[in-house]
Amino acid sequence: MLVQSKPYRTIWPHPHNKEVVQIIDQRLLPHEFVVVDLHSVDEYATAIRDMYVRGAGLIGATAGFAMYAAALQSRDDHFAGDMQKFADSLVATRPTAKNLSWAVERQLAAVQGLSTPAEKRRKSFQVACDIADEDAAFCKRIGEHGVTIIREISRRKGGGPVNILTHCNAGWLAFVDYGSATAPIYEAQAQGIDVHVWVDETRPWLQGARLTTWELKEQGVPHTLIADNSGGHLMQHVLVDLVLVGTDRTTCCGDVANKIGTYLKALAAHDNKVPFYVALPSSTFDWQICDGVADIPIEERSGDEVNLVRGLSAHGLTTVAISPAHTPAANYSFDVTPARLVSGLITERGITKADKQSILALFPEKG
Ligand code: MRU
User: Fold this and answer.
1) What CATH number belongs to 145-366?
2) Smallest Cα–Cα separation from 317: which of 33, 4, 43, 55?
3) Residue 14 CB burial class (10 angstroms; 0-12, 13-18, ≥19)
4) 29 and 41 Cβ atoms separated by less than 8 Å
């Protein structure tokens, strides 16, 4: 998507050295746009854990390239063992997004049948590029399917913008390009459909306030930033036509893990009969589990992210405390919205109800 009118992806091989990969350091957005080089598995692991890169699709794509770095670092005579150790260290960095282990396992499987380390390294680079390209292509298709929902709401309204509420950042910054929840919005904009986005600030890391606002602004999509707790009020006053969010892991029965606070939006949407859709590429499905509340691992991050806030002051980027020193803080990063609160899932293959039978009808090879 566009940054200062120039097209970017969120991750790409260095133009002069394919052993190096470049990313946008999302910790510094929207105030600074800094591109960082990644060389070693350690650097990739830090970038994922410390959220230079974040969002399910981008975590997966970064893990894909990290496994190529692992292939380069693995010793010829201990290749499989070294690869497995690197894989384990990467998977441990962030536990909730399914795309991480999906990409790592895809890389391990791809090199398994090949005979020489050189062949394996060549293959691993190709697979990393395929994962990134596929992520972008799937998000584009999510946009093409999802826009039908927005177009239909616009037609029924017969005037005025379609007001879409989103939580966190499931935009292009969370993927390789286009985004999941934002792809239908960008497609609607391209088709001339009038849209307006309510952006939840998304405490504590502020993905909405820092990232979603920035990317919508760069693409010229009308939007308004709101405090996290505003959604219910807006829905009661018919100011939200559609809730559209992403997901970090979705079970084969349609339970959806997404950024903490999503569940409360789904409850409010249900109570106010506002459609609640979740957009995801198939790499985010966890085909092994059904009950999301019981079985999706929920990442707990440092309480510092709750007690401290970083923003721009006259002196540059500054961190300030917003609570008394040493306040105990809990930081559950995700919650699970049960399938019964989900109006539908928008995937690269089309839109489906959030239940096992319908999901498997769209992905029969997983049955
Ligand atoms: O902690 P993050 O920023 O990696 O969380 C991911 C998210 O941004 C959201 O939960 C998002 O809505 C789904 S990821 C496409």
Assistant:
1) 3.40.50.10470
2) 33
3) middle
4) no
Burial class, 25, CB count within 10 angstroms (exposed 0-12 / middle 13-18 / buried 19+): middle
Q: What percent of the chain has pLDDT above 70?
A: 100
> How far, in Å, is the centroid of ligand 1 from the Cα of 169?
6
259 close to ligand 1 (CB < 6 Angstrom): yes
The size of the chain, in residues, is 367
- Each residue of 79-94: pLDDT tens digit? 999 999 999 999 999 9
Which of 3.40.50.360, 3.90.1070.20, 1.20.120.420, 3.40.50.300 would CATH assign to domain 2-134?
A: 1.20.120.420
Ligand 1 center to 334 CA (angstroms): 8
Residues 6 or more apart in contact with residue 7 via CB below 8 angstroms: 1
- In this prediction, residue 299 has a pLDDT band, given cuts at 50, 70 and 90, of very high
Per-residue pLDDT, 159: 87
- Pick the catalytic residue: 200, 241, 248, 255? 248
| Sheet containing 17-24: order of strands | 11-14, 17-24, 35-38
For range 246-275, the mean pLDDT: 98
H or E element, residue 72: helix 56-73
Q: How many C-beta neighbours within 10 Å does residue 69 have? A: 25
Active-site residue flag, 177: no
Mutate to test the pocket of ligand 1, among 165, 182, 259, 305 (most ligand atoms within 8 A of CB): 259
Residue nearest to atom 6 of ligand 1 (CA): 55
State if pTM tops 0.85.
yes
Find out whether the beta carbon of 250 lies less than 6 Å from any atom of ligand 1: no
Q: Are strands 162-166 and 285-286 parallel, antiparallel or unpaired?
A: unpaired
Domain boundaries defined on the chain? 2-134, 145-366
Closest C-alpha among 267, 196, 279 to residue 229: 267
Q: How far is CA 283 from CA 26, 102, 136, 177, 319, in A?
A: 22, 7, 12, 15, 35
Structure tokens at 36: 């960082």
Tokens 């997404």 belong to which residue?
258
Rounded to whole angstroms, the Cα distance separating 59 from 124 reads 17
Structure tokens at 71: 């292939």
